[in-house]
């Protein structure tokens, strides 16, 4: 600030105007695909390709028919895909949050070789691309019966742990040790210290990690596709893929409708947690 | 009833630096240089052979410069730090391996360590809730403690919305709600500004009369130590230097370190030579021969002194201005003088030694007619009785055994 050229108020106002315009354009570009999906999900299939960016007209408007087609498509009910997606997302995220926050607390507070090794491994796991391990993984998952929606969260825990532990450890280290010592004197054992004192303080990080994991698991395609028995269990991304495959032709309108259905929960979730997301990200920025 | 007894308590931190040296080369050597702690094969000795019996309801203050092991000692009493050697008993029960929550102690931390996600009320109720105290009793105790500390109007706030002084009160409140046997405090006032610190100090004195606990209080501020403590433990580099009442440590410091540490401004030190003559002891220092009073002489005789190089010490308050031609008067030049209000602190140098004199301004009249200008000459004297003698080699007080 100090070495900036002194600016007149007028030029500052002009700068602001330019910035506003630039960012508006960026925002529009950013949301355009989502808007396109929303628009096209209400258009008849034939109009999706020809008038992609146009609003639905009287002629092209399809009403709810795309949604109905999409949801009753093929021989797999959409609602079970939705249910499995939700189940896997909720279970995985919960498992990651609980296990990783506990592990991170231990790693951050216990000063031993073992912890350092574990921490390094966790960091390292973030660097290994999924594609490198996916085939051995799907075999292993099959053998260990991790191929159902109730057990696949364990696989997600393995993949999510790296980032989650990294973020939690950073935050735990910023919590003064004295607070936990005060808890120990006040009458908490390790378990109560963690759940009554540490966990509530971790709230901002819990939220930001939770959001990252929810987005990732909800949208993930490859892992459930490789691990789950596709005839029995499908998540929404897999179901969308099947809409495309089965007849050789693609019902784009129905696809858009389902994509919209898949996006809506994430958007609702984002809007309801917006306050915490910004807080959590900021907390991570300062303390991470 | 809570007597706390520390017998040969020792704390050794395993030497981490040794292993780190391989990685960081030069850097690791630095922290060792800073402190004068003893380093053994096992590690850094942070507290060495600490012996103290604390009576029920006594207020003991641990005081010493930074890094001398005060907090470590306190944390060993609390059970937050393992005890490397010796025995800690509270009420006759050995506590070395007992978990902090089962020692019936409470602690106030320097950083307050309040739970940020709980309201003031919940912070104070937390230890009671964990002990399954009935809800109505919790409410009564919390409100009573809040009343005592004057924080009733903040009970619904989170700690974030409080000032330092208010947070400190909450921390004290959380410690006293459950009537602990022993109340440990680690520099509770050092984050407060000077005025608030004085105020809180007075409140701790009041508080202590109201509650039935044994206090162990850590500070590096000797004023706090002198005003609060029934007994003061002065530590340096992990070793106890002296244990005594405020009067004792002030009037009969065990060694040079205690003499210099207790008292503001510091005691004035100068080298001299003690000689036994036919007419009694004579201190030869600062170009003057000072005859030592017979009482002190007797004590010196008992200590077996005949001829000895000593470091002598005189408290600034015990020096009076004098005329240059008076017998026993010393002369020097003024370096700086500081007007403190009711007194003037005059810094003078005599024969290469720095002296501080505290001169009450009330006595100012024309009689001595001096102005304390920088560079002006000054003469002063002190009663031979006021002089403390320390062995020049070991620093020990010669008279006090
Ligand atoms: N984990 C540790 N490993 C090695 N040395 C340590 C460790 N913790 C503390 N020490 C050393 O022990 C000594 C005593 O520390 P302590 O915290 O008790 O000092 P203190 O008297 O409370 O000082 P202050 O007034 O600064 O709080 C210090 O010199 C410190 O370097
Ligand atoms: Mg300390």
Q: How would you explain this protein's 3D organization?
A:
Chain A: The chain crosses the membrane at residues 21-42, 81-105, 117-138, 150-172, 193-218, 252-271. Chain A: Keywords: Cell membrane, Membrane, Transmembrane, Transmembrane helix, Transport. Chain A: Pfam families: BPD_transp_1. Chain A: It is found in: Cell membrane. The complex is a heterodimer of chains A (288) and B (401). With 288 residues, chain A is mostly helical. Chain A has 13 helices and no strands. Chain A is globular, with a radius of gyration of 24 Å. Chain A starts with 8 loop residues before the first helix and ends with a helix. In chain B, the strands form 4 sheets. A 6-stranded mixed beta sheet of chain B has the order 7-8-9-4-10-11, sandwiched between helices. A 5-stranded antiparallel beta sheet of chain B has the order 2-3-1-5-6, covered by helices on one side. In chain B, 27% of the residues lie in helices and 33% in strands. Chain B starts with a strand and ends in a 10-residue tail after the last strand. Chain B folds into 2 domains: 4-104 and 180-260, P-loop containing nucleotide triphosphate hydrolases (Rossmann fold), CATH 3.40.50; 265-391, RNA polymerase II/Efflux pump adaptor protein, barrel-sandwich hybrid domain (OB fold (Dihydrolipoamide Acetyltransferase, E2P), Beta Barrel), CATH 2.40.50.100. Chain B has 401 residues and is α+β, with helices and mostly antiparallel strands. The interface between A and B is medium-sized, with 18 and 22 residues. Bound molecules: adenosine-5'-triphosphate and magnesium ion. Magnesium ion binds at residues 70-71, 186 of chain B.
């Amino acid at each position: 600030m100090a070495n900036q050229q002194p600016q007149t108020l007028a030029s500052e106002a002009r700068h602001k105007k330019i910035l506003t315009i630039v960012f508006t354009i960026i925002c529009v570009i950013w949301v355009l695909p989502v808007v396109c999906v929303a628009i096209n999900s209400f258009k008849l299939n034939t109009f999706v390709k020809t008038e992609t960016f146009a609003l639905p007209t009287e002629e092209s408007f399809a009403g709810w028919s795309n949604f109905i087609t999409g949801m009753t498509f093929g021989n797999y009910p959409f609602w079970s895909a939705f249910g499995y997606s939700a189940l896997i997302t909720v279970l995985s995220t919960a498992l990651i949050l609980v296990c990783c926050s506990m592990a991170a607390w231990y790693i951050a507070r216990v000063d031993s070789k073992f912890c350092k090794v574990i921490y390094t491994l966790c960091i390292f796991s973030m660097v290994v691309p999924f594609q490198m391990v996916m085939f051995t993984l799907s075999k292993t998952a099959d053998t260990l019966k991790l191929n159902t929606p109730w057990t696949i969260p364990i696989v997600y825990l393995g993949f999510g742990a790296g980032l989650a532990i990294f973020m939690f450890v950073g935050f735990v280290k910023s919590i003064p040790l004295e607070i936990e010592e005060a808890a120990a004197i006040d009458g908490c054992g390790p378990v109560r210290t963690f759940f009554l004192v540490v966990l509530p303080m971790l709230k901002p990080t819990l939220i930001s990690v939770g959001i990252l994991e929810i987005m990732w698991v909800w949208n993930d395609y490859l892992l459930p596709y490789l691990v789950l028995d596709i005839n029995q269990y499908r998540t929404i991304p897999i179901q969308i893929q099947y809409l495309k495959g089965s007849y050789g032709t693609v019902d784009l309108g129905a696809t858009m409708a389902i994509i919209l259905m898949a996006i809506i929960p994430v958007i609702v979730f984002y809007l309801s947690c917006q306050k915490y997301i910004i807080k959590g990200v900021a907390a991570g920025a300062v303390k991470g | 009833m809570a007597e706390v007894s520390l017998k040969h308590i020792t704390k050794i931190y395993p030497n981490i630096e040794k292993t780190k040296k391989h990685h960081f080369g030069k850097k690791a050597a630095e922290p060792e240089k800073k402190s004068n702690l003893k380093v053994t094969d096992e590690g850094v000795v942070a507290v060495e052979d600490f012996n103290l019996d604390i009576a029920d309801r006594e207020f003991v203050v641990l005081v010493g410069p930074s890094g001398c092991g005060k907090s470590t000692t306190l944390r060993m009493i609390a059970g937050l730090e393992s005890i490397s050697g010796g025995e800690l008993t509270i009420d006759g029960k050995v506590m070395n391996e007992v978990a902090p929550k089962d020692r019936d102690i409470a602690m106030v931390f320097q950083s307050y360590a309040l739970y940020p996600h709980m309201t003031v009320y919940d912070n104070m109720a937390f230890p009671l809730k964990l002990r399954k105290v009935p809800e109505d009793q919790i409410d009564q105790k919390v409100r009573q403690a809040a009343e005592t500390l004057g924080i009733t109007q903040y009970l619904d706030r989170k700690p974030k919305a409080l000032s330092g002084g208010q947070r400190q009160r909450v921390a004290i409140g959380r410690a006293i709600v459950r009537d602990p046997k022993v109340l440990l405090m680690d520099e509770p006032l050092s984050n407060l500004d000077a005025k608030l610190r004085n105020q809180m100090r007075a409140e701790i004195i009041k508080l202590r009369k109201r509650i039935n606990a044994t206090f162990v209080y850590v500070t590096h501020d000797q004023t706090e130590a002198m005003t609060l403590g029934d007994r003061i433990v002065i530590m340096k580099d992990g070793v106890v230097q002296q244990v005594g009442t405020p009067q004792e440590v002030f009037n009969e410091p065990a060694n040079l370190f205690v003499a210099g540490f207790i008292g503001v401004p510091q005691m004035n030190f100068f080298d001299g030579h003690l000689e036994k003559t036919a007419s009694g002891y004579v201190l030869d220092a600062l170009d003057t021969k000072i005859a030592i009073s017979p009482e002190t002489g007797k004590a010196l005789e008992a200590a077996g002194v005949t001829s000895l190089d000593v470091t002598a010490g005189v408290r600034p308050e015990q020096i009076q201005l004098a005329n240059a031609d008076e017998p026993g008067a010393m002369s020097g030049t003024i370096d700086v003088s500081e007007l403190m209000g009711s007194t003037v602190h005059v810094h003078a140098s005599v024969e290469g030694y720095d002296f501080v004199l505290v001169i009450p301004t009330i006595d100012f009249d024309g009689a001595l007619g001096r102005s304390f200008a920088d560079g002006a000459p000054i003469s002063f004297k002190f009663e031979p009785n006021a002089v403390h003698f320390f062995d020049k080699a070991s620093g020990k007080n010669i008279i006090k055994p």
